Each structure stands twice: as C-alpha cells, then as structure tokens.
Structure to design on (409 residues):
C-alpha cells in the first residue's frame, strides 16, 4: 500500500505531530508500505517525516493561500471561498497537486488541515481513497462547513481526533462518510519524566527563580482561543507573597493571521504589573524538556478543545494539570485523577487552583503520578498501530470492491 499525506504546514504543531505518529507506527508495523508526505511549506516536519522513512515532496502554497486562516473571525468567511475561487495562483496550485497525485497514484490520500481537505478532495485521482483527518471543529466555520458538507461525497473515510470532533463532523456531513474517532497518541519514549530540562528563566531573560518556586506553564500556539489572557489574568490574581512563576512557552507557529500577538501579550502582562512573575520563552524545539522543567501545566483554552494533545504530553512527563476541560479535553480528564478543572471565564478560578497546588506539593506529586499512569495506559503509539492501519485497509477494501462492481456492471 502507498499512503500519501498532505500537510499545509511544515512546522510541528499538534496536527503535524499526529502525522509523525502515523508514520512511526506504519514504519514499525507495516514496513512494506510506502509513505509520501507532500508539504505546502518547508520546515522541521520534513526532517522528522524523512527520519521515519517517508518520501518528501515540497509543493509550496502561493503566498495568498498560505496566509489564509481557517479559524477565527478573519478566516471563517474567506478560506473556502478563496480556495474554490478562480484566483490564478490557487487554480495553478490545484493543478500542480493533481499532477503530483496522478504521478504518485497512491492507494490512500490522508489530508491534514482544512486547506488540504478541500484541495485533496478537488485533486485526488480516480482510484485513490481519500481520508480526511479532522483535528478541529467544523461547525464554528460557517462557510467551510458548507464546503466540507459538499465535498464529503468525495471522501471515503474521516478520522476525528476525539469523540467531540466526531460528533461535530457527523452533524455537518451526515451519513455521507464513515467517521472513525481515533484519539491522538504521543511518543512515550520522548515524553517521559527522565531527561534534560530547559532553563526557562534564561530563555525568558529573567533572574533565576528562588528555591521552592512553583513553575506553572502555558504551552500553546498563539491561536486566540488558547487562553493566553486568562493565564495572565490568573497569575495577576495570585497573592504576591506566593512563590509562583508563570511561563508562556510558544509563539507564532503558522502563517495564518487568526492569532494573538506575542508583543501584545507581553504588553498585557506589563499592564497587569506581573513583572518577573511571568516569562516568555518563545518557541522551543524540545517541548518535553520544557515540560520537565515545569511543576504544573496550565491548560487555559477558552473554547472547546478538539483534543488537547499537550495535556497528554505533560501527563506522560509526570506533571499535574490545571485545565478548563472543554470539548475533547474532557475526554482525557475523565480517564483519571490527575487534573484540577477550572472555569474558562474566571481567572480567579485559575488562581485558586494554582494556589492549592503551591500549598500542597504532595498533591502535585500524586496528580503527576496519576497522569503519567493514565498516559501510559491510554495514549501510547501501540494503540494507534492497532487503529490506523485498520482504517486504511478497510477503506481500501471498500474502494477496491466498488471498482470491481463497476467493472462488472
């Protein structure tokens, strides 16, 4: 079998990490299969995917397509319209992608991101099965939802990264495609309590924290709904005498415009008079090392989380979690006693949870240990190795049967 993955990004966000996990399990359990990754931009994903045996094809997006966001108010109305428009650059890209796919003639095309869901459906050759991997809610994107519904007739299967996303997708596409909820997994050899730790203070240009300081981190992209301002407001509500330091670990990962600004967040922290109570590390290339340097993860998404991959990663590193627990994150939290849940609209709720953990380090250790056990039980790659190839094989069997029926009709 030949599986071709389409990725709009060459960076290493959550969806791209899922792609790496897929390549890893196919390399280990289906070494006879061929994998190819078509990237719309160069970046670290190319190297990581190549390390797992995939052939890499770089097919860069035109600038106007690369800048279009698929979430937030700025992107909801125009992403699908622009992709489906008669823009010469986008028409040219669709033609290029169609040509590459015809040359490769994959058995399965697996798409990441709404841009590639649309383009993959428009460009896939006859005889190839199309699998959409949905990592986000569709219903909140009014124009995209209509396009996805229309194009879903060209799709052979949809993988959703949580039951919440699967239910949301079903409302949009109806019965036109089979939907498989497959929760994300993480590399438990990478995300583990043992290993190097980053110096978060040095990365943030802060003086070293005093001994006994509780280090609380928000690890996220700059997507507006990740709750950066809730995190900062929560830190501002803490008793100044409490030994706590917060860290925002992340930055602008994608080219889209529907994001917070790092400079504006720094200014907001200044307005809240947080001083050296919060640091901004920027993007880090070794997230597990950053997680091991924390005592607590603050997961402050203010909108329903499609999955919440960072929760599982930090759990695997043995750290406790404070989370709003919305959407797919609730599916993770329900699996064990390792998290304190807070109100997504109330920074005092976050401050109270942090204060509780600062006052009870034994509770921190217990929640961290429980989280590590839960991650190892439910979120190792061995589960994906059982679930993902089975979807490909089932879909391809169905497509082959349909081709045979047409041949004998």
């Amino acid at each position: 079998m030949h599986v071709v993955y389409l990725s709009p990004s060459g960076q290493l966000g959550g969806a791209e990490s899922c792609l790496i996990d897929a390549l890893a399990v196919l390399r280990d359990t289906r070494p006879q299969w061929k994998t190819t990754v078509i990237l719309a931009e160069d970046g670290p994903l190319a190297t990581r995917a190549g390390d797992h045996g995939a052939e890499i094809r770089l097919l860069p997006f035109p600038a106007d397509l690369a800048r279009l966001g698929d979430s937030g108010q700025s992107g909801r109305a125009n992403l699908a319209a622009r992709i489906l428009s008669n823009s010469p650059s986008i028409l040219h890209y669709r033609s290029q992608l169609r040509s590459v796919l015809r040359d490769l003639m994959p058995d399965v095309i697996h798409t990441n991101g709404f841009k590639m869901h649309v383009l993959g459906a428009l460009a896939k050759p006859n005889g190839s099965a199309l699998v959409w991997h949905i990592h986000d809610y569709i219903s909140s994107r009014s124009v995209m939802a209509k396009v996805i519904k229309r194009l879903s007739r060209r799709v052979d299967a949809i993988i959703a990264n949580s039951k919440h996303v699967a239910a949301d997708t079903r409302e949009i596409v109806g019965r036109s495609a089979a939907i498989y909820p497959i929760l994300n997994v993480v590399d438990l050899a990478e995300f583990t309590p043992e290993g190097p730790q980053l110096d978060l203070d040095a990365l943030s240009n802060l003086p070293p924290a005093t001994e006994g300081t509780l280090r609380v981190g928000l690890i996220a992209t700059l997507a507006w709904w990740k709750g950066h301002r809730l995190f900062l407001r929560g830190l501002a509500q803490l008793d100044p005498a409490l030994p706590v330091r917060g860290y925002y670990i992340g930055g602008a990962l994608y080219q889209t415009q529907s994001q917070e600004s790092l400079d504006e967040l720094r200014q907001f922290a200044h307005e809240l008079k947080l001083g050296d109570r919060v640091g901004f590390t920027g993007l880090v290339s070794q997230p597990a090392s950053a997680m091991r340097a924390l005592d607590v993860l603050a997961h402050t998404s203010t909108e329903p989380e499609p999955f919440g991959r960072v929760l599982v990663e930090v759990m695997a590193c043995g750290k406790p979690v404070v989370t709003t627990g919305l959407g797919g994150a609730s599916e993770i939290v329900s699996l064990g006693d390792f998290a304190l849940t807070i109100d997504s609209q109330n920074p005092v709720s976050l401050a109270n949870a942090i204060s509780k953990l600062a006052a009870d380090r034994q509770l921190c250790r217990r929640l961290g240990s429980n989280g590590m056990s839960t991650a190892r039980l439910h979120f190792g790659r061995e589960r994906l190795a059982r679930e993902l190839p089975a979807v490909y094989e089932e879909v391809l069997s169905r497509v082959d049967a349909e081709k045979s029926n047409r041949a004998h009709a």
Notes: Residues 22 and 388 are 8 Å apart (CA to CA).
